[in-house]
Amino acid sequence: QVQLVESGGGLVQAGGSLRLSCAASGRTFSNYAMGWFRQAPGKEREFVAAIRGSGDSIYYTDSVKGRFTISRDNAKNTVYLQMNSLKPEDTAVYYCASSCPGFKYYTNYAKSREYDYWGQGTQVTVSS
Predict the structure, then answer these.
(1) Strand 3-7 vs strand 18-25: parallel, antiparallel, or unpaired?
(2) Model confidence over 26-73: pLDDT tens digits?
(3) Could you report the per-residue pLDDT of 75-94, keeping only the tens digit for each?
(4) CA dist., res. 42 & res. 39, Å (int)
(5) What is the pLDDT of residues 22-35, one digit of tens each?
(6) What is the distance of C-alpha 41 from the center of its chain?
(7) What was the pLDDT predicted at 102?
(8) What do you get for the CA distance between the two ends of the chain, in Å?
């Protein structure tokens, strides 16, 4: 059974940093793209970042470019999201997700329905 377990969320002041981790088990980690999504209160879940299984391709949503960095360590079955220069509008529950088999990465990296396993979420709160 595939499991994704996030950690690293918390409360931080604007301008601060957090590093989220997502530990995966139950499938060959390097075979699957991984994504980070977030959901703020009263809003729909939105794409944040994605990384291909090999780590050789990365995408970000425009609002986090230059501030967030996604990375993965396939030896540790873990994907990370380093978040710097945090803003109050980054406040949300952050989820990691593993792509579906046959995932067409370059066209579907931002589509939540193309990810079949999700973590439980970790709260990130940025105070002004």
Answers:
(1) antiparallel
(2) 999 999 999 999 999 999 999 999 999 999 999 999 999 999 999 999
(3) 999 999 999 999 999 999 99
(4) 8
(5) 999 999 999 999 99
(6) 18
(7) 86
(8) 40
89 DSSP assignment: G
Helix, coil or strand: residue 15: coil
How far is residue 105's CA from residue 75's CA, in Å, rounded to a whole number? 21
What percent of the chain is helix, strand and coil (3-state, nearest 5)?
10, 50, 40
- Residue 38: strand pairing partners: 46, 94
Q: Considering the chain, what is the average pLDDT of its residues? A: 96
User: Is residue 101 scored above 90 in pLDDT?
Assistant: no
Torsion of Cα atoms, 51 then 124 then 62 then 25, to 10° = 10
